[in-house]
What we know:
By secondary structure, the protein is an alpha+beta fold. The protein has two helices and two strands; from the N terminus they run H-E-E-H.
Amino acid sequence: MKKVEGKPDIPTGAVRAFVLCGGAGTRLRPLLADQPKSMAPISGTPFLQLLLDKLRSQ
């Protein structure tokens, strides 16, 4: 793993999941305007938060 300047080293084995949140979100743009699609509210909670909570519980 490449160290990013100014970021702490992450111990080997510490990373258990990667969450990919890329993309322009063009299909969701009419609903989200300038908000990132990973922050789209699902029942009032950002999608990314729901995903992280699910990962944490496993």
